[in-house]
Specification:
Structural class: alpha+beta
Helix content: 10-25%
Distance between the termini: 5 Å
């Protein structure tokens, strides 16, 4: 997956998603970031693949965007995903962390 492929997939779920960070502080928000290019080689050339994270911050315990993010990432045959959840007591946000690899 190229970075463009990843962005297109994520925007299809949350059109307001941002790249690297978001400045939102008073409403639900989502951002994504790539961490490293995966070391795939075929025919002597690197194939584009990325390890990336998607972060969803919400105060809704049953947030539909978080659910759709997991469903979309899990259903895409190019993507492997692990979904973790953290509760931030100071801010009241539920932090959905999607650790992904896109092939």
């Amino acid at each position: 997956m190229t970075l463009g492929d990843i962005r297109t997939l994520l925007v299809s779920v949350d059109p307001g998603i941002r790249h690297y960070f978001s400045t939102e502080t008073d409403r639900d928000y989502t951002y994504w970031e790539e961490l490293q290019r995966l070391p795939f080689v075929a025919d002597g050339c690197h194939e584009e693949g990325w390890r990336f994270y998607v972060h969803r911050f919400t105060r809704d315990e049953f947030d539909p965007v978080a659910r759709r993010l997991f469903e979309t990432l899990d259903a895409d045959p190019r993507t492997a995903v692990i979904h973790r959840v953290d509760a931030e007591r100071e801010t009241g946000y539920i932090h959905h962390i999607f650790e992904c690899e896109g092939f």
